[in-house]
Write a structure and sequence with these properties.
Number of strands: 9
CATH topology: Purple Acid Phosphatase, chain A, domain 2
Order of helices and strands: EHHEHEHEEEEHEHEH
Strand order of the largest sheet: 4-3-2-1-9
Radius of gyration: 17 Å
Distance between the termini: 28 Å
Largest sheet: 5 strands, mixed
CATH superfamily: Metallo-dependent phosphatases
């Protein structure tokens, strides 16, 4: 199974105090988010992280996450050299991940209005906004096939700071057509071009 998450901001006292006040301190916050990740994601699953794990010592947090298969998308608060030292060759600015439903999802830290193959049914997952604009985006663009998969949006939609499963992602986005969708019979080139 594939899971999606991001914007944990482990070790960030200011974020915990201002945006996640239900936690008494940053250590309690960090442990709760790691526990929720480990309860959701199995060791052999794939976890796509859309950035902003922490500013310092990413290895400290990575070693506490049981999942072995992590694709890491760089966020604006990540220090690239430190992230690459921990996640090795599994670090990207954006990455396309094939979902079991047959449609791929483009993962990026930032929300995009259009992404590779967005007119052909691809999904888009991102973080960065901490769920602040999701309702507004749904009003402006009700058929969009994109969503914030960060932990703040998980709290808003699922009631917990945990990863979204692929099935949950498809429950939220699966019936949406996308923008300017081009039906297969009207396409003037092959999707694989």
């Amino acid at each position: 199974m594939i899971y999606f998450t991001g914007d944990q901001h482990f070790g960030c006292e200011r974020l915990v105090a201002n945006a996640r006040p239900q936690f008494d301190n940053v250590d309690q916050h960090d442990q709760a988010l790691i526990d929720l990740t480990n309860l959701s994601v199995g060791q052999n699953d794939t976890l796509v992280m859309v950035g902003d794990l922490c500013r310092e010592k990413p290895g400290r947090y990575r070693q506490r996450i049981k999942c072995r298969n992590i694709f890491y998308i760089l966020g604006n608060h990540d220090k690239e050299a430190k992230i690459r030292a921990v996640f090795g060759g599994n670090v990207w600015q954006y990455k396309t991940v094939k979902l079991a439903c047959g449609y791929p999802a483009v993962a990026c830290h930032y929300c995009m209005c259009a992404w590779d193959q967005s007119h052909y049914g691809r999904y888009h997952v991102y973080g960065h906004w901490h769920a602040k604009h999701e309702e507004e985006m749904d009003q402006i663009w009700p058929q969009r096939r994109s969503m914030d998969v960060g932990v703040d949006n998980a709290m808003r939609l699922l009631g917990e700071y945990r990863p979204f499963s692929e099935d949950e992602l498809l429950d939220f986005l699966g019936d949406r057509v996308g923008h300017d969708f081009i039906p297969p019979e009207e396409r003037w080139f092959n999707e694989n071009d």
